[in-house]
Design a protein that fits this description.
Layout lengths: L1 H9 L15 H13 L7 H7 L4 H12 L3 H19 L4 H7 L5 H12 L3 H11 L1
Helix pairs in contact: 3-4, 6-7
Length: 133
Amino acid sequence: MAHLQQTLARTPAGDAPKPQTGGLSPQRERLVKQLILERLDQSLEVTELARACALSRSHFSRAFKCSTGLSPQDWIRAQRIARAKLLIQHTDLSLTQISLECGFCDQAHFCHIFTRSEGINPFAWRCRVVKGL
């Protein structure tokens, strides 16, 4: 006990972990993530997500990033890429069909975002995954 008190006495007060504040409530975070995932194939506006949480756009964006570590747009993009990877791996859909299923405006945009995210284009990724099976 005395050792613990000595250790705490030597620890600067500023080093204590601070509770995270400013994020979305667990209910709002769950709600908005569910909304995003249900409508991943559609165009999603941050304003619409903020409205679903009854928050202003700027407050929602800050709170979402505080809760998830990513901006709403980055989180949506990551979910679209994750879904695309599942579709590439487990279906025979064309890359054009996959891009539309995942909410990208066209195949070129999908290929650009996928390559930027994964370091390889989706066609090459599909070849690598299929070869690995």
